[in-house]
Design goal:
By secondary structure, the chain is of the alpha/beta class. The chain is built from eight helices and eight strands, in the order E-H-E-E-H-E-H-E-H-E-H-H-E-E-H-H. A six-stranded parallel β-sheet has the order 4-2-1-6-7-8, sandwiched between helices. Strands 3-5 form a two-stranded parallel sheet. Helix 1 (20-32) links the parallel strand 1 (6-13) and strand 2. The longest helix is centred in the first third of the chain and has 13 residues, at 20-32. The relative contact order is 0.19. The structure holds adenosine-5'-triphosphate (ATP) and magnesium ion (MG). Adenosine-5'-triphosphate is lined by residues 13-16, 21-22, 25, 109-110, 112-113, 135, 137, 160, 162-165.
C-alpha cells in the first residue's frame, strides 16, 4: 500500500498584525485540500513593502504564535525572519522543502497577492515547488487567468473585510480592534503600544 504524502499548507504574510482574515483563509484551505498542517511564515523585510515602515519581525512573529497557538494543525516558522536580506517567496519554499522533503506544499494567498504572482522572483520555480491556492478577499477580484492551471486553484471563503492596514489605523486612532484580531493579539498590541505612531 502506498502512503499518501503529507500535505503542508504555507501561509505567508507580513502579519502586521495577524487577523481573522488570515486565520479563516488558512482554516478553509486546510479543510478543502485536506492539509495535515498549515505553517504560518511571517516575512522578514518584505521586498514589496520597502517604502513603508514595518513592525519589527519579533513582534510580528510573537503575535502569529499567539494567534495560532490553540490550533493543533497550525504552526509558525522563523525561516523568513531569520534569513538576512529581503524576503522572497522562492527562498521560503526552498527552505521549507529542505526542511520537509516528505511534504507537498500548498501556498495560500489572497486575491490581491495572487494577482502579483508573476512579478515575484523566480515565478516559474514557484510553481514547481508548490501548488498555489488563491482565496477570495473582499475588495479584490479573484483571477487566476494566465497562471498554470494544473498548479493554481481558487477557493471561495467567508468574506472578512479585514486588513492589517485597517487594524493599524484603528489602533493608532484609539478605535477598537476587538474581534478583528484574536483576543491575545489585542492584548499584545496594547501591552507593547504597537501602531500608536504608525502612518498607515
Ligand atoms: P496589509 O494591509 O499590511 O497589506 P494584509 O491584511 O493584506 O496586510 P498580509 O500580511 O499582507 O495582510 O497578507 C498575507 C496574505 O493573506 C496575503 O496572501 C493576503 O492576500 C491574505 N489576506 C489578508 N487578509 C485577507 C482577508 N481578509 N481575506 C482573505 N485573504 C486575506
Ligand atoms: Mg497585504
Amino acid at each position: 500500500m502506498t502512503q499518501r504524502r503529507a500535505r503542508l499548507g504555507v501561509m505567508g504574510g507580513t502579519f502586521d498584525p495577524i487577523h481573522h482574515g488570515h486565520l479563516v483563509a488558512a482554516s478553509e484551505v486546510a479543510a478543502r485540500f485536506d492539509l495535515d498542517e498549515v505553517v504560518f511564515v511571517p516575512t522578514g523585510a518584505p521586498s514589496f513593502k520597502q517604502d513603508v515602515p514595518v513592525t519589527p519581525a519579533e513582534h510580528r512573529y510573537l503575535m502569529t504564535v499567539i494567534a495560532t497557538a490553540s490550533n493543533p494543525r497550525f504552526t509558525v516558522s522563523r525561516v523568513d525572519i531569520d534569513r538576512p536580506g529581503l524576503t522572497y517567496t522562492v527562498d521560503t519554499l526552498r527552505d521549507l522543502a529542505a526542511d520537509r522533503p516528505d511534504a507537498d506544499l500548498y501556498f495560500i494567498t489572497g486575491a490581491d497577492a495572487i494577482a502579483q504572482l508573476l512579478s515575484w522572483k523566480d515565478s516559474a520555480e514557484l510553481f514547481e515547488r508548490a501548488r498555489f491556492v488563491a482565496v477570495t478577499r473582499p475588495g479584490h477580484t479573484l483571477s487566476v487567468a494566465g497562471l498554470p492551471a494544473d498548479r493554481v486553484s481558487q477557493w471561495e471563503i467567508p468574506a472578512l473585510a479585514i486588513s492589517s492596514t485597517d487594524v493599524r489605523a484603528r489602533a493608532r486612532d484609539g478605535k477598537p480592534v476587538w474581534y478583528l484580531v484574536p483576543d491575545g493579539v489585542v492584548q499584545y498590541i496594547a501591552k507593547h503600544g504597537l501602531y500608536r505612531g504608525s502612518q498607515s
